[in-house]
Specification:
This protein is of the alpha/beta class. It folds into 3 domains: about 100 residues, no CATH class; about 80 residues, no CATH class; about 150 residues, NAD(P)-binding Rossmann-like Domain (Rossmann fold). The protein is about 30% helix and about 25% strand. The protein has a 6-stranded parallel sheet, sandwiched between helices. Strands 3-2-1-5-4 form a 5-stranded antiparallel sheet.
């Protein structure tokens, strides 16, 4: 979502200058690729761009292709194929060894539902969304057609595709929470490739505590584009903290903090009694991650006292509770500790085991799947 925010900000700024724009989107990937389906790059007619579709090997050529789409006022698709190791191929110097399809869509600034405005609606909704995009069709007029669905996924209607087939595709996307490419044939006999993209809201990080070391974790979270809230004594929250977070709650407001499946909570009070007071508010919440800063002995003492006083389950048996918090990277400084915490949160949210990639069998990324209806 951080990259999407940057693209929207650039779009707003460039339209004030009268520049035309096109959006380059990764719509299909085979084998190795630095970026995955859904990676985006916004290009202006003046040669500026923001975002990215690769690690840098494709952006220069993609800039030219995007400017050509702007000039022609027509959607186009380009395939970058580096599976064969030949010197003339774009990206071969970086050893990409993949096949990447990029859709170049000129932006109609007068259309309130153009590709960028749909992304803005996703940000504003702050909820999971499905973005449908036609990425290939025997009817070229359908190429690049979009539809955004938030909450009511039954409203899907695109390209004349059978509504039941479309509903099945959307259900499959929601189940995996990953992009999928589907192949359809509509009532008119036109063959259509449809990208169904799951857009998740930004990760929300709730930090309990307002000591100086919180600054380091806020810095890492800001760099990742997470929404950060801090819980502490409101009157004693440092300005350096207040300036970098979305919201500040007092300890007395902890039970009112909105929690969802995209929320991680970290206890960093350095105060045993305060942690004992705060934990019951979050133990039984339906959240994917609850971390507690401090050594194992402290965690075990908290566990015993909570079981006695509030009759909660053994914390060691609750999957989303992590204490001590963070990955074992030998972290010592506040910055290193923050890095280990953020990395653990990412691994939990992405359902990965956080072991070194050299020990992983198979591909780094799960392969995107194509489905026929």
């Amino acid at each position: 979502m951080k990259e999407i925010r940057k693209i929207i900000a650039a779009y707003d700024a460039w339209r004030q200058t009268g520049a035309d724009m096109a959006l380059a989107t990764v719509v299909k990937v085979e084998e190795s690729s630095y970026r995955r389906i859904g990676a985006r790059m916004l290009v202006s007619s003046k040669g500026l761009f923001v975002g990215g579709i690769s690690g840098g090997c494709l952006e220069g050529n993609a800039l030219k292709k995007a400017q050509m789409a702007i000039h022609k006022k027509a959607v186009s698709k380009v395939v970058y194929d580096t599976l064969e190791e030949e010197d003339h191929q774009i990206g071969i110097g970086l050893g990409c060894n993949g096949r990447i399809e990029i859709l170049f869509s000129p932006i109609n600034l007068a259309d309130t539902n153009n590709s960028i405005e749909l992304l803005r609606q996703t940000i504003e909704a702050d909820r999971p969304a499905i973005l449908l995009k036609i990425i290939a069709s025997t009817d070229r007029s359908l190429l690049g057609v979009n539809q955004l669905l938030v909450d009511d996924y039954q409203e899907a209607s695109i390209g004349g595709i059978n509504v039941l087939d479309l509903a099945s595709a959307i259900d499959a996307t929601l189940e995996r929470k990953k992009p999928k490419v589907f192949h359809f044939e509509n009532a008119a006999g036109e063959k259509i490739e449809l990208l169904s993209e799951y857009l998740r809201p930004e990760t929300r990080l709730v930090i309990i505590g307002n000591n100086y070391d919180v600054n380091a974790l806020i810095g890492v979270a800001n760099e990742l584009g997470w929404q950060v809230s801090v819980v502490g004594k409101k009157g004693k929250v440092l300005k350096s903290i207040a300036d970098k977070v979305e919201k500040i709650y007092d300890y007395s407001e902890a039970s009112n903090i909105p929690i969802d499946e995209y929320t991680a909570v970290i206890l960093m009070t350095h105060d045993y009694r305060r942690d004992l007071q705060m934990l019951p508010f979050f133990i039984r919440k339906d959240l994917p991650y609850l971390g507690m800063l401090g050594p194992r002995k402290r965690f075990e003492k908290l566990n015993e006292e909570l079981r006695e006083k509030v009759h909660c389950d053994d914390l060691k048996n609750i999957a989303h509770i992590h204490g001590p918090v963070g990955l074992d990277i030998g972290a010592e400084s506040p910055e290193e500790i923050s890095l280990s915490i953020a990395a653990e949160i990412v691994s939990i949210f992405r359902k990965r085991d956080a072991r070194p990639l050299k020990f992983r069998t198979g591909t780094i990324h799960e392969r995107e799947h194509n489905y026929s209806q």
